Amino acid sequence: MSGDFLNLGLGYPAAPLLPRQQLAEAAQHRFSQDDLYFLQYGDELGDPELRRELAAFLTQQYGCPVPQEQLMISGGISQALELVCDTLAQPGDTILTEATTYFLAPPIFAARGLNLVPCPLEASGSEGGPELAALEALVQQYRPRFLYTIPAHHNPTGLSQSEERRRQIAQLAERYGFTILADEVYQLLHFGPQSAPPYSCWVPGGQVISLGTFSKILAPGLRVGWIHARPETLERLAANPTLLSGGGMNPLGAALVSSVLERGMASGLRDLRARLAEQAQALSSALHEFSQAGQPLEGTRWSEPEGGYFTWLHLPPNCLPPHWPLRPSKPASAFIPACAFRSLATRPTRRGFVLPFIRRQSCKRPCAAWQKRRGNCGQQAKARSGWAAPRSATSAQADNPAGY
Ligand SMILES: Cc1ncc(COP(=O)(O)O)c(C=O)c1O
């Protein structure tokens, strides 16, 4: 935040949540060792010590075995998506995405020439994930290479998939031979009930690649994440020419994370969840307070998150200021309106925006700003045309019955 400007455009941790002490100690620990292997080019699969520590950590946190041989270190989920699509797909292959999805993932897929087809989300509004019948119909029609999904504390809706939905989607993947690209970025950040088991647990016998990151549980600047996949898949990924030339991703960052894990990360993670729970609660209270005082939020509803970083604010029709673009050219603006999260092939909408509660100032300021804006609600602002028709999905498929 600078001066009066509060950027709610990106989900990144507030400065007090960054693990300064933990990382300073990790650096001291690493650089006091004789073996400075992490200052050399690294193994294509990534730092072996981190893979070993991570295997133990994930096995304990996920509650299912995650062996070292099934782990590759990535430069975060963003880099992992790029690597997986470059290696395992061809331009023109179809990738199904959730109709409302993390707004920076579709451009990664589009840049690789993939055909993006949005799948409607479950319409009940209480459970997250692709709507199963629609998903199966799209799979039959497009024979996709991948389904990209954010199963736990979804960005931006905040909802999670039940265990049963995950199981059924995993079964569809096996039946039709597509791969689930599970972006499990918020899996470990539950502060409500324990999340359903991650897709990671389906990796050994299923058609699943699970992606994780330390961006949200330690610090985004580390640029360290992981890919959990079968060893034969990892072998293909590790044959990437850039990795052959430059070595595995980020050996120095990986060595620091490995030290953090070796010294114990579970209690830091518990503290982080508790802080997130407090901040989500503060945002929720502020929204309730403002909705009761003077009805500035009449007709508005929002999710009460049980984990992750985001609350989704759902607005009455045509409520966003008319000058907000339907397709923001610069997504990291002060707020991210709903339209930015629609998959590139989905009809845009002005029905809401996301509030990251990850920074404490996020909790009250948006409500005050919203009071000033409320005059726009209810006006019949005409939706601008100008969205690109999906390359192959029909508008009925592109429609999102959940109204995100
Ligand atoms: C759903 C989702 N995936 C991926 C990322 C980025 O992850 P990374 O920093 O590991 O590239 C984010 C960051 O906000 C996210 O919300």
UniProtKB/TrEMBL annotation:
Gene3D superfamilies given in the database record: Aspartate Aminotransferase, domain 1 (3.90.1150.10), Type I PLP-dependent aspartate aminotransferase-like (Major domain) (3.40.640.10)
Q: Where in this protein does the record put region Disordered?
A: 379-404
Q: Name one GO molecular function term.
A: transaminase activity
What SUPFAM superfamilies does the record point to? PLP-dependent transferases (SSF53383)
Which InterPro entries does the record match to this protein? Aminotransferase_I/II_large, PyrdxlP-dep_Trfase, PyrdxlP-dep_Trfase_major, PyrdxlP-dep_Trfase_small
Kindly give the Pfam families that the UniProt entry links to this protein.
Aminotran_1_2
CDD domains, per the entry: AAT_like
**Which residue range or ranges hold the Aminotransferase class I/classII large domain?**
7-318
- Alphabetically ordered keywords of this record: Aminotransferase, Transferase
PANTHER family, sorted: AMINOTRANSFERASE (PTHR42858), LD15494P (PTHR42858:SF1)
List the protein's name.
PLP-dependent aminotransferase family protein
Name its species.
Answer: Deinococcus lacus
